[in-house]
Amino acid sequence: MNQFNIIILTHGEAGNALLASSEMIVGKTPHTTAISLMPGMSPEALMQQVKTILNPDVETIIFTDIYGGTPSNIAYLLSREFPIRCISGVNLAMLIEANMLQDSDEEQSFDEYIQHIHDAGKEMIQTYCFNKG
How far apart are CA 67 and CA 104, in angstroms? Predict the structure, then answer.
């Protein structure tokens, strides 16, 4: 089993909704946490909240909603002090993939896991419709 933690760091309740949807599909995910930047919350308060669950001895993936937004910038700053990889543009497919990799016996480096998760998220973004003719 692979040991890494996952934090979903988003504006508003988006991260909590993604976590609930993911757990509906893959079951409970004890090493995954959602943290929300709520209206009126300072970046410093958000950073402190994230720091309380980071462990310098455990690699962590931080998923954020928007690259360059406050959650993304905080994840970037924390990656200077902690073993963190940041992935922006979180979607349900990449979160499910990350949770399934946590339970996998597949041996890869942490960076290979990150690339695999990134690719899985991109592959699920499709444009489609039903043509009636």
Answer: 28
Report yes or no on 33 lying in a domain: yes
CB 6 within 8 A of CB 99: yes
Residue 114 domain-assigned (yes or no): yes
Q: What is the pLDDT of residues 76-105, one digit of tens each?
A: 999 999 999 999 999 999 999 999 988 777
Say if residues 49 and 70 touch (Cβ distance below 8 Å). Answer: no
Flag whether 111 is in a domain: yes
pLDDT score, position 3: 82
Residue labelled with tokens 């699920």: 124
Are the C-beta atoms of 45 and 51 separated by less than 8 Å? no
Phi, psi of 130 (to 5 degrees): -100, 115
Q: Establish if 130 belongs to a structural domain.
A: no
Read off the CATH number of the domain in which 56 is found: 3.40.50.510
